[in-house]
Write a structure and sequence with these properties.
This protein has 10 helices and no strands. The chain is mostly helical. Bound molecules: phycocyanobilin. InterPro entries: Globin-like_sf (IPR009050), Phycobilisome_asu/bsu (IPR012128), Phycobilisome_asu/bsu_sf (IPR038719).
Length: 185
């Protein structure tokens, strides 16, 4: 079932046949109060998605060139396209989870059964995990505007979002990437 921070607290309360708890309400108040920050964080990832994905896939190929040689899982172009597409899918579902403040959409729609699919198709775990790690590093840098021109090159782009404490949102975003990594491992 796909939930968000609100429906999650309703389901939790219903499961214990209790009204929404005071602490539950407190968490939702915080969710609303920090809503703009959350939207900025989602935007930081979504508006740099193709750059984040292509950089991650270029990275795994650079580190393991066997991927694009005969027998490699990014060879021929059909598989390279599938790999780039998968990167986009996973990143997109991470943004959905971050937007809704709940991992269920990521779990149900993207991760469920993915490890088995990858095993059946011979998609290498080490490289998939590495691609997600690179997407994580670059997404968190975009959320915090800590990306550098040295690492970004020609495509360098600062989000220029309002500066403030984004530690909780960064940790939450990181946890969704970690969820993808542990689902694939
Ligand atoms: C909505 C959720 C959803 C997900 C998550 C999804 C994943 C997904 N990735 C697939 C294939 C694939 N995925 C990859 C990915 C990679 N190969 C590598 O070497 C890299 C490590 C990695 C990219 C980072 C490749 C190459 C294939 C094609 C494998 C093949 O056909 O031999 C397939 C098999 C069918 C197909 O080729 O389309 C599925 C179902 N599909 C979905 O609908």
């Amino acid at each position: 079932m796909v939930l968000d921070a609100f429906s999650r607290s309703v389901v939790a309360a219903d499961a214990s046949t209790a009204p929404i708890s005071t602490s539950g309400i407190g968490e939702l108040k915080k969710f609303i109060a920090e809503g703009n920050k959350r939207l900025d964080a989602v935007n930081a990832i979504a508006s740099n998605a193709s750059c984040i994905v292509s950089d991650a896939v270029a990275g795994i190929v650079c580190e393991n060139q066997g991927l694009i040689q005969a027998g490699g899982n990014c060879y021929p172009n059909r598989r390279m396209a599938a790999c780039l597409r998968d990167g986009e899918i996973l990143l997109r579902y991470v943004t959905y989870a971050l937007l809704s403040g709940d991992a269920s959409v990521l779990d149900d729609r993207a991760l469920n059964g993915l490890k088995e699919t990858y095993a059946a198709l011979g998609v290498p775990t080490t490289s998939s995990v590495r691609a997600v790690q690179i997407m994580k590093a670059s997404s968190l840098a975009h959320i915090n505007d800590t990306n550098t021109e040295a690492a970004g090159g020609k495509r360098f782009r600062k989000m220029g979002s309002a500066q403030g404490d984004c530690s909780a949102l960064t940790a939450e975003a990181a946890s969704y990437f970690d969820r993808v990594i542990s689902a694939l491992s």
